[in-house]
Amino acid sequence: MGRLTEAAAAGGGASAARSAGPPPAPLPLSSTSPGCAAAMASSEEDGTNGGASEASEEREAVGKRRRLGLLATIWLTFYNIAMTAGWLVLAIAMVRFYMEKGTHKGLYKSIQKTLKFFQTFALLEIVHCLIGIVPTSVLVAGVQVSSRIFMVWLVTHSIKPIQNEESVVLFLVAWTVTEITRYSFYTFSLLDHLPYFIKWARYNFFIILYPVGVAGELLTIYAALPYVKKTGMFSIRLPNKYNVSFDYYYFLLITMASYIPLFPQLYFHMLRQRRKVLHGEVIVEKDD
Amino acid sequence: RLRGGVWNQEKGDKVEILDAKTREKLCFLDKVEPQATIAEIKNLFTKTHPQWYPARQSLRLDPKGKSLKDEDVLQKLPVGTTATLYFRDLGAQISWVTVFLTEYAGPLFIYLLFYFRVPFIYGHKYDFTSSRHTVVHLACICHSFHYIKRLLETLFVHRFSHGTMPLRNIFKNCTYYWGFAAWMAYYINHPLYTPPTYGAQQVKLALAIFVICQLGNFSIHMALRDLRPAGSKTRKIPYPTKNPFTWLFLLVSCPNYTYEVGSWIGFAIMTQCLPVALFSLVGFTQMTIWAKGKHRSYLKEFRDYPPLRMPIIPFLL
């Protein structure tokens, strides 16, 4: 299932933050199913979302889902079950490590293969959007997944000295709870049996998880800065044949700065979505 | 008023304007001429709501429908004696000409700041020094020529079908053009700039591509201008003229974009600068989207549209 609303998934931290892309198209939250979110997602992009009420979204969602081929439904169900399972395994491994060792040092190392596998596997969600079996826009999904891939591969994996920082555990916990909630939400939606508590979790956990995830990610990047500066990693200096330069240190600084405009936008958007979905408020969206 | 000997009631249509979102009655116009155009109605609406000048009004028959055109005549619309129009605020507007001039003047000026190595860009020992590479001077001439051409075309050649665009576009567009101009110019005019690998040969070839494409792009702009008389908004299928550069119309709907991409590819080869290549790629992506849209509207509007034509790249895209 596509990453309809990384935002809804909350605690996605950077990923959620960055998924907003340039304003004013923050991520919509799906109400009960991919179809809804899809409809909202695509219209949000044009800025023409008129704050459709949940009822009409529901209907549209069911309609859209019926149009999903059998193969696509089977694949997406399998995919979401697999991802739920994967992140569950990750969660259990993290808990066990802490119970056995009593410390977070070495935790990343012990779960890194699983983390990398399942987080990288999520690249498929871009393909889901590309082929249209998930209604989210490719751009939105791309930004979301990319920010996660960035965090996993370009920060935590590549900058070994920061792997034992507490902030890493912080975002790992946020991501894990988020993803388990999100993928199980999609799974149940696809199976047409969505327990209320999953919907509740999806639209409430983010309140805590999102800021926690963002904090974890920012603190991790911040901790990495001295090492990046010292080693000059991932950087290109002049002179060179292609007349370009890149300074990873400044890139990281800019990335951190970008959280400032993006985080509040996404967070408040998610809060509005939550009110709409859980409390049936009809909100007339401000015209862009 | 007597007409044909029979008393006729003073015929005038009534127009009520409602807010498209809240359905609130915003304005009621009495005795509107049936021959009145939407443009005239917009002017009347502005009188009661001066903050909504005509350019930012979108009037439609259906709250979720398409905007009516300024030239549409009230009488010809499917309305009763009281026309109900729905209003949507398009937001602050800015004229296309203003946007174009601003977004093109920026790169012209910014590039020169780097070319002349104005203080605080490169190290102080390089202030106001000049590059020893011919290609750097050539690149400055080409870049400046390109934007001067664009400015002149905006002022004297282009005929815009829309008067205005949303105000926020100017910030978006200027960030794009000015940002990339600064990024490119920084490297090309850098004291540590490395000239192209294949030397003068590469530069000559690139220059030829650039010049040909600039001439081509200009030819297309002139051909498109001649297609549409001054002040009109008519649309016609463009065809090749006597000018060989316009023969590209045989193969593509938007040869102006084709030539534009070509110019930037030429500039990228000339400077052998990766940021230029990236700028070309981004521009190409955007122009392809525009070309596909234009191509689609041509196909929709003209039954006899030449089937051989592709949007932007002959035979391919």
Automatic annotation (TrEMBL), chain A:
It is an enzyme of class 4 (lyase). The keyword Zinc does not apply. It is found in: Endoplasmic reticulum membrane; Membrane. It comes from the Eukaryota. Its EC number is 4.2.1.134. Keywords: Endoplasmic reticulum, Fatty acid biosynthesis, Fatty acid metabolism, Lipid biosynthesis, Lipid metabolism, Lyase, Membrane, Transmembrane, Transmembrane helix. Pfam families: PTPLA (PF04387). Residues 1-59 are annotated as: Disordered. One of its GO terms (biological process) is fatty acid elongation. This is Very-long-chain (3R)-3-hydroxyacyl-CoA dehydratase. It comes from Capra hircus. The gene is HACD1.
TrEMBL record, chain B:
It comes from Ovis aries. It comes from the Eukaryota. This is Trans-2,3-enoyl-CoA reductase.
